[in-house]
Design brief:
This protein has about 300 residues and is an all-alpha fold. The chain is globular and about 65 Å long. The protein is built from 15 helices and two strands.
């Protein structure tokens, strides 16, 4: 059994870094950063600077400033991704609520009827569970959220286009999976993508949204779900191994591919521009490793920026 982790002072944390080969150029600066940002969080970025999986010492010449630069890059990158994920979340909620409200009515007693959803036997339990979750949100948020309270007080009901504001992205993605087939097709027609792809994308987007909101490490994250090949893989001529694309399947570039299909052309250009600027700043601060090593962890091919110019 491993010994329990013991509390370490900032001075002891610095000594651990030095013992592993990290260069500390400015001890006072390092102390301030570790106290403010947390040793545990910054230390989580060390792996890309290690000599190997077996030799867990830092590459010769690696400085604390480089480690901190990657930490700061990931924060900026996470904020960029989060901003555009919120755009997609809002669009998704708007399109789904519009489709259901137009077809089934705008009062919760109308749009939350089980008959409005997938009627196949294997979906019945999920439909009932989802309706309960949504009705629970009506009860919880009815008097707590200003928008829902306004409708309850003045009209006696909460329209779906207001209710979705207080539903989690995860719950909305689950909602899509239990819609009738014709409703799912109508929603996907707006994005010009097929239902199966959209069904794969939504939980991935919801998971990344939560990851960003909780400030987890993003740049090297891999998803369990793998997206299907797209026109973007083909046009970008992404390298293959054993007839499988090596980038853009379950890495950060797969998220960029998904977002390209759901954002407008202008939004995509802005997204790529902001990421590029953040990477340029990181590259300037890296000395012991090339920026390509970071891009590889992210799953970004050399020509990743060109995705902004591909017509949807």
């Amino acid at each position: 059994m491993k010994d329990n982790k013991q509390f370490k002072t900032v001075d002891e944390q610095i000594e651990i870094f030095r013992y592993k080969g990290l260069i500390i150029n400015d001890e006072e600066f390092t102390k301030k950063v570790l106290l403010r940002e947390n040793y545990f969080f910054i230390n989580g970025y060390r792996y890309i600077f290690m000599k190997s999986l077996n030799n867990k010492r830092f590459i010769d010449g690696t400085t604390f400033e480089e480690l901190y630069s990657l930490f700061l890059f990931d924060r900026e990158f996470r904020n960029i991704i989060f901003k555009y994920l919120l755009v997609i979340e809002n669009n998704t909620k708007s399109i789904i609520s519009y489709q259901l409200s137009k077809k089934y009515g705008y009062k919760e007693n109308d749009y939350l009827k089980a008959k409005n959803f997938d009627s196949t036997p294997e979906k019945s339990r999920q439909v009932n569970d989802l309706i309960k979750k949504m009705k629970r949100q009506v009860r919880i948020n009815g008097n707590q959220h200003s928008a829902t309270r306004h409708y309850l007080i003045n009209y006696g009901y909460i329209p779906l286009w207001v209710l979705v504001k207080v539903l989690s992205f995860g719950l909305v993605s689950e909602l899509f999976t239990v819609l009738k087939k014709e409703d799912r097709i109508h929603i996907c027609d707006y994005y010009k993508i097929n239902v199966n792809d959209y069904s794969t994308y939504l939980p991935i987007l919801a998971n990344y949204r939560n990851l960003c909101a909780h400030e987890d490490i993003l740049f090297c994250n891999k998803t369990q779900r793998v997206i299907d090949d797209t026109i973007y893989h083909h046009i970008l001529n992404i390298e293959k191994t054993n007839d499988e694309y090596i980038y853009g399947k379950n890495d950060l570039f797969s998220l960029i591919i998904i977002m390209r299909q759901l954002l407008s052309q202008t939004e995509t250009v802005n997204l790529i521009t902001e990421i590029s600027h953040a990477l340029d700043n990181l590259e300037y601060n890296l000395k012991s490793i090339p920026i390509d090593k970071v891009l590889n962890e992210m799953g970004f091919p050399e020509n990743w920026k060109e995705i902004a110019n591909i017509e949807r």
